[in-house]
């Protein structure tokens, strides 16, 4: 993918250059502008026909994804498209290949090469009931090429080693190496009431975890008292 991350670090977007007939996949509704690019919505499944529709419906019901994925196709050798996330924060490119894939948390995906796809991996019942990573399934990349992910706030890369496992608040996790083992648990006390913390992810093994420096649910709670409603 030929791209430039433009704008400031708080509210950037990705400017992507496309050759003729080159295709990328983008998050639904993420297009900011385009030139000589054709957009089309395709079912969010590698299968075709009725099987593809059933597969896409299943992914939507189990993970909250859209039934469709937007495909952007270059119509000339100087085509371009601007892609912007829905929340302010840093954007980072992850390169995937046969030896290196990622799991993505809900809302982290922005766009990717057409040669990259993802599958929904089933979680254990305990992880699904506790976690915020797509319910009973999580998104895991496949193929090779570039994947763009976005964060709310800044984006930091943390190392996990066999000697130093890492515990991260679930709302701050963006993506992690598929080589890592992880578990979701309550931070402390009765659902974290004693410390104010909620669910955390425990990562074990050797690899990297990408985190965001802000928590959008905490922001929503902070501004809720200042939002006028019909009752007040």
Which helices and strands appear, and what pairs or packs with what?
Layout: E1 2-6, E2 13-18, E3 23-26, E4 31-35, E5 37-43, H1 49-63, E6 68-74, E7 79-83, E8 91-96, E9 102-104, E10 109-113, E11 116-122, H2 125-130, E12 137-143, E13 145-150, E14 155-160, E15 166-169, E16 173-177, E17 181-186, E18 199-204, E19 207-212, H3 216-223
Antiparallel strand pairs: 1-2, 2-7, 3-6, 3-10, 4-7, 5-6, 8-13, 9-12, 9-16, 10-13, 11-12, 14-19, 15-18, 16-19, 17-18
Written description of the protein model:
With 232 residues, the protein is mainly β. The chain is built from three helices and 19 strands. The strands form four sheets. A six-stranded antiparallel β-sheet has the order 5-6-3-10-13-8. The chain has a six-stranded antiparallel β-sheet with strand order 11-12-9-16-19-14, with helices on one face. The longest helix is centred in the first third of the chain and has 15 residues, at 49-63. Mean pLDDT is 83; it is low at 49-54, 59-64, 128-136 and 190-195.
Q: Going across the biggest sheet, name each strand in turn.
A: 5-6-3-10-13-8
- Structural class, from secondary structure content? mainly beta
Tell me what portion of residues adopts beta-strand conformation: over 45%
Low-confidence stretches: 49-54, 59-64, 128-136, 190-195
Shape: globular
Descriptive key words:
six-stranded antiparallel β-sheet, 3 helices, single chain, mainly beta, 232 residues, globular, 19 strands
Condensed summary:
The chain has 232 residues and is mainly β.
